[in-house]
Write the structure tokens for this entry.
Amino acid sequence: MRKRWNKTEIDFLKRSYGSLTAISIAKELGRTKKSIECKAAKIDLKGIRETNRDLVNGNYFNEIDCVKKAYLLGLLLADGNVSQSSGGHYIRLVLKDRILVEFARNELAPHRPIYPHLHGSVGFQVGNKELFDSLAHYGMVPNKSQYVFWPNDIPERFEAPFLLGYFDGDGCLHYSGIYPIWTLYGTQQFLTVAAQKIKYHINVIVTGPKPKSDKKWLWRMWATSDRARAIDSWLHHQCNLGLNRKRIRK
């Protein structure tokens, strides 16, 4: 017996069919891909492959030649994901910080909608093989979490905004009394190089990297007090990007 569509499902389909693949929507609604496509056809919705296809900045990451590109690459390496199927090559970012999702969307595909996700998060998705391939060059591949490395060809002058983007994705800032504690999470390889870059640029030695949990690939490194303040200042010295909630109070 066919499962009847309810209003909540139809509203979600209408909001999402121009930005998510039928497969992604099917997973969200617990339906089949065929069910999604048939319903969309009945109510005359245009799918992701038929909407604003030529308005994706597919060559965006072909060269890291500005602060914004470096920052966004770091953010995507930390919190983005990519997938490949018979339907195409997709890049997706889902976060609770809407400002970061809007920034990524505006840079890569300004006409793509932002859609609501679970637990107050929002996201956007774009399908583009050139963008997919260029991100793979920097290590952004399907199921990348265990294998993220520091890309070799990030220009030295953009290493700070690149690390800032990564920190906004996979870092945290908290306080012990009045003392800030700056922490970064990732693979041992990525954090080892990041620690070397910090020491090279501002002569600050972080603690770690050290294993974080029972996940063998997850490590962390941190800095406190004046070391944390020095890192915070260096990361932001080139630009006004970055989350205010992750900046050290003056």
Summary: The CA atoms of residues 150 and 193 lie 7 Å apart. Residues 53-144 form a domain with the Endonuclease I-creI fold (CATH 3.10.28.10). The chain has nine helices and eight strands.
